[in-house]
From TrEMBL:
Coiled-coil features, chain-numbered ranges: none
Domain Glycosyl hydrolase family 13 catalytic residue range list: 19-421
Record family assignment: Belongs to the glycosyl hydrolase 13 family.
One GO term of the biological process aspect: carbohydrate metabolic process
Classification via SMART domains: Aamy (SM00642)
Keyword list, A-Z: Signal
Stored SUPFAM superfamilies: (Trans)glycosidases
Source organism superkingdom: Eukaryota
Protein name: Glycosyl hydrolase family 13 catalytic domain-containing protein
Pfam families: Alpha-amylase (PF00128)
């Protein structure tokens, strides 16, 4: 067993395994201080996460849903909370400006952004009341006319004719979903429409609507080609670092591999390369998970449900679980595996009005939950962090949200209002500062009550499920003879010295909390002076495409986007970035008509603070902290219209109190509803 695991550790020391991934939301996430602005909540939480060593955060789906839903009912892929449709502009996450600020603030704290992506289905066809969504020719679900607003075609009314005339990018018709003439299938993992019109990635899934007014022709592989293009746009626009893909069991692995390859190598400056983190949600046994990883050429890993079964056994075994059996429960292919304890699909508490736990809605749980108040939770996380893979921490496990009565009202910046569980924070700190994953994975001891894993020469992690008994064991180790080790969990102040025979004796506390610092179930032995951890604090680069089929000109939208108009020097608003005083901003542009110059204008609220004309590159150092609005225009009124791509690189402050900076101020001064309606053409009122 030990030799086998050593070989596996050497072969599969995988991509991104030094990362610690926090799932930054629970199902139906909400805070009254950040209504429909979860991006602001996470932005303000980021410094606390960075302090303990969290260096990646999984954020919920961020595209427009039919309502202010939690993200898993995608409607318009190109609406990040900037378009006015379905009767509102923002999303559950916030506006597009707030979303992009969140990404940049996370980067300024050394945190990667892992975006949840839903590629299996779309939903919500039709205007705000469903008008125009139905196609009578559809074989199955009639509500498969998907049309979207854009800068050129904003919503003027919510009737059928208006909806079916909208020309936003990536329209969809009934032939793009199961079943269709190119793939007549409605059952099984790939074809069943569990959550809405089920996307078909087979080549023959294309065709036109029978009743839409905007009805461009489609061609073979329409959905695969369009999703590929969208994902690349999405990565560039947001500055995304990694991905969690939803329900990957329910669409073609060949499509997933295609998308991953192109995100790695065909996204220009935003290409993620071999190191790009990606994980697919595939619910199944170990062999199924391994096969799926192989089918996508190991470009993504999976959540290790087999290991999670053993972790659940620790919790439910009442001290009688066989700890030595845990390593054998892991899936075989661990190149990019993601060990986990809880997630939003396994954790569905019934809540009181103030957000406290009041039972469990087990009928909605994908797998049985683990109660974060269980005394053996620390054992679960110690295992998840010790084995190979990128460990994931669920937000309700790191933070005490279930008993304080302030789930919906707390300030995430204030530790007293949102306290961390000390054991989980300590395990994260140890993983990062002792650099677990730089050492090969070895199992020097496994017995009924004790599992010991060594990350070769980096750390020795002991885990027990015993409630009352301290565990003491002598093991062989890769630490050099004479090395003095300490328990970085703080459960004991004793040290242990590696003998000349390369053995060392360690202690592990029981789960009843009697150890120093209240530590339960685990010890982490390592050098007296850890090698340390440095966060990857950095700038953010984001790219805006200025085209008429993107953005929105409606007065209730953010009024961003649109190509530069022909023979005019009228400006178009690109978007906003959140800048820090004295921190340089650089930019460059790609022009569809390189012979005609473009002027870039930067605004602080309504004040022009910088202009370069004509320019495709430039820089500006602000003397203020806050929103910087970006605008572009043709330099000469003799220039034809053109599409422009604007790439901005900047670094915001790492700490921000978001409500001090109104994201809705517009440099044109027309955000106020009265002024917007005055400026809106009468024909569109």
């Amino acid at each position: 067993m030990k030799l086998f695991l050593l070989v596996i550790g050497l072969l599969f020391l995988g991509v991104g395994q030094s990362k610690v991934l926090l799932q930054g939301f629970w199902w139906d996430f909400w805070n009254d201080n950040y209504p429909n602005a979860w991006a602001d909540y996470l932005a303000e939480l980021s410094p606390r996460l960075a302090e303990i060593g969290v260096d990646s955060v999984w954020v919920p789906p961020t595209i427009k849903n039919p309502g202010y839903w939690v993200g898993y009912a995608p409607f318009d892929h190109y609406d990040l909370g900037d378009k006015y449709q379905k009767g509102f502009t923002g999303t559950r996450i916030g506006t597009k400006d707030e979303l992009l600020r969140m990404v940049a603030i996370m980067h300024a704290n050394g945190i990667d952004v892992v975006q949840d992506g839903v590629l299996n289905h779309v939903t919500g066809a039709g205007a705000s009341d469903g008008s125009g969504g139905s196609d009578p020719a559809a074989w199955n679900d009639k509500y498969t006319n998907f049309r979207y607003v854009s800068f050129a075609t904003p919503a003027t009314t919510e009737n059928e004719a208006d909806y079916l005339s909208r020309a936003g990018r990536f329209p969809k018709n009934w032939e793009n979903f199961h079943n269709n003439p190119g793939h007549d299938c409605l059952s099984g993992d790939i074809c069943a429409g569990y959550w809405g019109p089920d996307v078909c990635y087979y080549p023959g899934a294309y065709g036109q609507s029978s009743n839409a007014i905007h009805n461009p022709p489609q061609s073979s592989d329409y959905m695969r080609n369009e999703v590929r293009s969208w994902l690349i746009w999405y990565k560039k626009q947001m500055g995304i670092d990694g991905w969690r893909f939803d329900a990957v069991k329910h669409f073609l692995p060949s499509a997933m591999e295609d998308f991953l390859y192109n995100l790695q190598f065909s996204a220009g400056w935003a290409s993620g390369g071999d190191e790009m983190f990606a994980v697919g949600e595939y619910v199944g046994g170990g062999a199924e998970l391994d096969n799926w990883c192989a089918s996508v050429q190991n470009r993504a890993g999976t959540f290790d449900f087999g290991l999670r079964g053993s972790i659940y056994g620790i919790i439910t075994g009442n001290g009688n679980f066989d700890m030595g059996s845990i390593p054998g429960a892991q899936q075989g292919n661990r190149l990019r595996t993601v060990p986990f304890v809880n997630n939003h699909d396994t954790f569905r508490p019934i809540l009181t009005t103030d957000g406290n736990y009041n039972g469990w809605d087990t009928s909605q749980e994908l797998a049985a939950h683990i109660d974060p108040y269980d005394g053996r939770l620390s054992a679960a996380y110690a295992v998840a962090f010790a084995v190979d893979g990128t460990p994931t921490v669920f937000i309700e496990d790191l933070f005490d949200l279930g008993k304080l009565g302030n789930r919906f009202t707390h300030d995430p910046k204030v530790a007293a209002q949102l306290p961390m569980r000390s054991d989980i924070a300590n395990i994260i700190w140890c993983h990062q500062h002792l650099r677990f994953k730089e050492g090969a994975y070895k199992v020097p001891h496994g017995s009924g009550d004790l599992l010991v894993i060594e990350r070769s020469g980096k750390a020795i992690i002991g885990v027990t499920d015993s409630w009352t008994a301290w565990q003491t064991v002598t093991i062989g180790t890769d630490f050099p003879a004479g090395t003095v080790l300490k328990d970085h969990s703080g459960a004991t102040v004793e040290t242990a010295t590696v003998g000349g025979d390369k053995t060392v004796t360690i202690k592990v506390p029981p789960c009843n909390g009697e150890a120093l610092n209240g530590r339960r179930c685990y010890a982490i032995w390592g050098p007296l002076t850890p090698p340390g951890y440095t966060a990857n604090v950095r700038e953010t680069t984001q790219e805006w495409e200025m085209a008429d089929d993107l953005g929105d000109s409606h007065p209730l939208s953010l009024q961003q986007g649109g190509q530069l108009p022909a023979y005019s020097v009228e400006t178009r608003t690109v978007g906003k970035i959140f800048v820090a005083a004295s921190s340089p901003v650089t930019f460059y542009l790609f022009l569809s008509d390189s012979l005609n110059g473009v002027t870039v204008e930067l605004y602080n609220d309504q004040t022009l603070v910088h202009s370069e004309s004509p320019s495709v590159t430039g820089s500006y150092t602000p003397n203020f902290t806050g929103w910087l609005t970006i605008k572009v225009r043709n330099t000469e009124a003799t220039s034809p219209g053109q599409i422009v791509w604007v790439v901005m690189t900047y670094k915001p402050p790492a700490q921000v109190t978001t409500d001090l900076f109104d994201s809705k101020l517009n440099a044109t001064g027309d955000w106020d509803l009265y002024h917007r309606m005055v400026n809106w053409p009468p024909s569109k009122l």
